[in-house]
Amino acid sequence: MRNVIVLSLLLLLNIQHVTSAPKGVTASLSAKWSMTPFLLETSEFIGEDGNEKFWQFVDTVKELTVYKQGESVRSYYNLILKKAGQFLTDLQVNLLKFALALRSYSPAVQASQQIASDEPPPEACPAFVSIHGQHSCSTKDIKKLLKAAAGRPKPYLHKNDHTYPGVNKTDVPVVILYAEIGTKKFTSFHKVLSEKAGEGTLVYVLRHFVADPKPQKMLLSGYGVELAIKSTEYKAVDDTKVKESGANAEEDNNDEVQGFVFGKLKKSHPELQEQLVELRKHLLESTNDMVPLKVWEMQDLSFQAAARIMSVPKFDALKLMRDLSQNFPSKARSLTRVAVKPEMRKEIEENQKRLGESIGVHPGDGELFINGLHIDLDIHNPFSILDILRGEARVLEGLHNLGIKGEHQGKLLRLPVNAVDDSYALDIRHPAIMWINDVENDLVYRSWPMGVQELLRATFPGVIRQIRRNLFNLVLFLDPVREESVELVKLAELFYKHKIPLRIGFVFVVNTKDEIDGSSDAGVGFFRLLNYIADEYDLSQALMSIVSMYNKVDAGETLSVDAISAYLKRKFPKANAERILGVESEYDDKRKDGALFYKKSGLGALPLALFNGVPLSPDEMDPDELETIILQRIMDTTTTFQRAVFMGQLTEGSNVVDYLMEQANVVPRMNPLILSTDRKYLDFTAKPVVDDWEDTTMFSYYDSRDKTAVMAKRMKYFTNTDEDGMSGVTVWIAGDFEKVSGRKLLLSALKRVKASPGVRVGVIDNPSGKPNEDNTVLYRAIWASLLTQKNKAAAEFVQKLLREESSQLLQKGTKMKDLLMQGMDRDAFEKKFNTLEVDFIRSQQLFCRDVLKLSPGQQAVISNGRILGPFDEQEEFTVEDFQLLEKITLSGSAENVKAKVKLMGMKAKHASDLVMKVDALLTAAPKGEVRRDVHFAKDSHSVLRLSPRENEVFYDVVAVVDPLTREAQKMSPLLIVLSQVVNVRLQVFMNCRAKLSEMPLKSFYRFVLESDVNFLANDTVSPGPVARFMELPESPLLTLIMITPESWMVQAVRSPHDLDNIHLQEVSGVVAAEYELEHLLLEGHCFDLSTGQPPRGLQFTLGMSRDPLMYDTIVMANLGYFQLKANPGAWILKLRKGRSEEIYQVLTHDGTDSPADAGDVLVVLNSFHSKIIKVRVQKKAEKMNEDLLSENSESKGIWDSIASVWSTFEKSITGGGSKKEDGERAKEDVLNIFSVASGHLYERFLRIMMLSVLRHTKTPVKFWFLKNYLSPSFKETIAHMAEKYGFQYELVQYKWPRWLHQQTEKQRVIWGYKILFLDVLFPLAVDKIIFVDADQIVRADLKDLRDFDLEGAPYGYTPFCDSRREMEGYRFWKSGYWASHLGHRKYHISALYVVDLKKFRKIAAGDRLRGQYQALSQDPNSLSNLDQDLPNNMIHQVAIKSLPQEWLWCETWCDDTSKVSAKTIDLCNNPKTKEPKLTAAARIVPEWVEYDNEIKQLLGQEQEQEQQDTATQKHTPPPSQHKTEDRRDEL
């Protein structure tokens, strides 16, 4: 039936046989480097799961490339996936496919390749080793090179180098193999090196190196392409005809237009091919209805789009959303006819209200959540989302393997896992602390206010608030005899005297032996004397006495018994010294308390201080530093208290000390082992096929995850269950119980079990020797009792067994059965004990060796999967330590996990196992941000829901999006790909805006992203992902914009068309734009350590070891920001030779790949992610008073260093010339002219402007162009022009920094570049630069403008003309805001200005302009002419020198009489006549046509020359093709 309709339609249309190629636009983006092999990318993907897996994979694919020749590309790709599948789960294989489609690991492979080329590789060598700087292509030379290696320096290894897992030794040579995994040559090297590394004779490192990379370019994805509709108010299109390229996009044959699926129709009616093409075109033109909508038609578009999306089958809904948002301008009219149901509108409003309250999302916002993690699409790109998916996969698969499905998964995932505290506090509510004062109750402080609300009262910065509460508590642990104590006591007295609101307490740690007295031990004497004074007077008096006593001690001496008794006699002559200090002293009580508290607290060496319970580090204990540190802590803690008062957590009725001690970071004891932030966990998530530990041989073949799972399954426990029968904390004790230390450890654990419900203990034997009947007696008794006895009886019996007297009895020959206790089942025990084999103990010992990494006989404690150990022989782990461990484990996440598992309703033993396993999984996962719970009030009409596949791991994805926004354009393709890559439970809420007053989207958009590598029908890899716009209306004028991840710098490399002005009516076929990822940015922030300020004008250079100066940059004052262009590889960052290096030195750096104190800063770029580093510098001691930007700083060095090789910007000084000549030429007279242009018309104007400048000056000219927006054709022809007319030029580029408010419209971005980056675009050697607009014609010598006296202003602009009277109504600066802001000053035009860059930098004009721009640009209505409004707005802060009027004449504003004296003529737009530029140019400036013809002639000759060259090239082989290519690239 359908066919009949089609045929009749064709007849109706009576189509003539005219075929036309489909029109459209395609854009592609290729990497600058060659294609990297899939196998190597796969190895990098697997390597992220750990070094062990990487090498196992490498072993598996040793000679895989052999299959490359015989197989098709597709089957070779599938073979790689199959090999990878041995090490990855199904979900990870899907993520691998996605990573390969994204080429996500290509930079990592290319970085190795780059490092190899820096070595450099020996000639004609498919693989080579580098041994401490010497190379060889053959395995035979390895021995010889190793011999003398020790004498040469070791190579530097990077964080992500692949080191073969051999014996870790530091004193052996390092061998780096550069080879391609899977090749024969690799295998022969690998065999030799892996053997030697296994023996521990060398360290073997592998770096990827492909000897002859494929020349073909690799297309990237993960970016967006926008075709924005341009305003055609002023006609600005070039009329030069473009020679079409033969490119023709493959038609999207499956496209459906108005219900007709043309792919199918063409197959079923091959004879009607031509007519079908015409029908398709006709239908397209009828749908591309671009007539503007009335305002009332727009109001409801967002709801109408949502209604349309919700009305189709849900599997098509996302595709429809993508289609509507990405092609909105041509779909808008059809949406106006859609009816919106009232219930849908009501539901959307209810949901919006709820979302606004719960997560702060407003109507129209777009938000994405994956498993509750907020994915901000402004920051995240597909590469970072892939990383998130991988991180989540580990946890999700773990939970899935543990049998947690459906709703429970989300609940457990969202549990708050408390981040590991790095500052734990000790509880200071202890009777052993002697408090000298009490801020709350002492009379001294009674005049101070009591209320905690006082904290919120404003004070001057740095003032310490005096409040009568014990907010700040300092406890000093001291041994009174040591000399460090003297200074600390004096400091305490200083705080007390100056009434600092600090409660001070002492813990004196003195000798605890009863027989020692004050006449023989100064510490004991000191303590008794202190007690006496405190009893007779009070503690504060005692503190004063201590101080005066210490004052008598000479420097370097310590307190002696004689000094104490002398002091006592002098101060208290009536007292009985013997009764106070002697053996029978009445003042000896609590002497032991201090020492006991100190021992139990587990703190480090004396002296010690606790501030609010948090211990200070040993280097903070220096008395000179301590005072400032304590005052700083008081200031820092004040803000925490302010927050607590504001949030109502701390109220007037609270006891402050109790409040402090109830915080999560307070512990009963300090044990660095338990509290350390570096934590290792067991992985319980494996599902082994068998759980046999009796067969040791079998057990030894399991990998570590399987071994762990078997142990968990077979473990038996001593329990003391909660009332719910569950245990929240599971402790495993591993050790040798024939040793005293092992028995002690287990005994402490069992004591803790007895005292604490909810803890259970399992025991693992790790005998010192090979397990046999004799060295496992005790353990077998423990195991037999666990298997046969009731819990309580078993625990009591084992405790008895572990006591020393029992083991002595056993050693003397007492039988085990004689030690049995009443209430035990003796027969069962004896039977079990006598028949137990030791095989399973051998398996346990293997587990200790391979998984816990213990040597035989070593001990470890495992708490909910967290491994503590191995312990040293003398290291004690007491009952208090078990108590601390339990607290830390529960407060981490075990308590929360237990509560959730309880709701699942399973048997107690199984539930306790699950708590242990889930806790280990969640706490081991890296801590991300908080997971949000996004719930909708109702979801029947406004939420698109897709259910996940059953019984598989699934991701919970929630999207909140208005279907007609930029977020929807981006999110819809992302969600489609996401649902192809992983199993998702998807909810998309239509977050529509009501009452739209303008078109919500004004552009066409494509997001380039694929879920898997695509192959063509003949099994070769498709050229790669491309953005295709095929159904475009032909009438509007479009401009193409690439929207790439933050750190990418891309440029157009090939397109004959004007990408700034695409008009499909005038094009036949497809406009193909080819872009290249030219650079990955390295960004950073730099600060001067001594001032804390950014060092303005400091210069950095970036290069490789063989070419140290490839790119360079200047540091901005805004955030100390700098950016450098780079590509994958290892780079060296240095201060630039010259003044930067003379005055400054690099002190430390973060985010880099070399040690923080290394002089050379090494940075490895190995991914598509942004790389941001921090560098701290300092002036050299002798240069403290020098300034980088000072007037007299032009030493010879700076000229030589800068002018010759300023290479941030691709160098292309024509006329050859050595570096020396360049340096001298810079000192000569050069006119520096800067200009920007985009689009073929403006480039045509630009060439004419250049010619007019050159015609009117004798001075050498250097042009500086902004490279970011120049077309490929301009970049190609500029070199010929430079040659013909004898000028120099440089292309400069700077990526708009991410922290500076982004402009979305291309024109406004270009305006921004004109003004915002003047201080960092040009080298410091350029003193003055003149900006000339592209559409200007110069009639005078610009040298006069350069030498014009700016009278101290940083720049000079020409004011707008006032002479043409009829334009008065259009002069916007004469009224309103501008009139009042400018006062008597003039409004200046930005078409021509001269900048004194030295002055500009000195007064930080660039930073001020950026600061003001940042403040104003948030408002979309301000800065309508950005480049002009900004300097005029800043006229009061950054002065403008007004240039004489004749420097800029423009017909729109100036009268005809003044034209005669004009020095430059600008083709301003005329708001009255709106005359097109080209006609205006020819009419206003007679010489313009001559210039235009001259340049056309030159370009014509060039084209002919090129065609001749290509013709001759076809017949003769190219002698040095690379040379010409490189020259091109350089430009």
Structural commentary:
By secondary structure, the chain is an alpha+beta fold. Helices cover 39% and strands 16% of the residues. The chain is built from 53 helices and 49 strands. Helix 19 packs across helix 21, helix 20 (522-536) runs parallel beside helix 22 (561-571) and helix 51 (1477-1484) packs across helix 52. The longest helix is centred in the last third of the chain and has 30 residues, at 1486-1515. Mean pLDDT is 84; it is low at 6-19, 245-253, 1192-1226 and 1516-1531.
Largest sheet: 8 strands, mixed
Q: Segments where pLDDT lies below 50 for 5+ residues?
A: 6-19, 245-253, 1192-1226, 1516-1531
In DSSP terms (H or I, runs of 4 or more residues), the helix count works out at 53
Q: How many strand units? A: 49
* Class computed from helices, strands and strand pairing: alpha+beta
On the 0 to 100 scale, the average pLDDT is 84
Q: Choose one word for the global shape.
A: globular
Tell me the fraction of residues in β-strands, as a range.
Answer: 15-25%
Gyration radius (Cα, Å) is 39 Å
Q: Between the first and last Cα atoms, what is the distance in angstroms?
A: 61 Å
Report helical residue fraction. 25-40%
Describe the structure concisely for a colleague.
The chain is α+β, with helices and mostly antiparallel strands and about 1550 residues long.
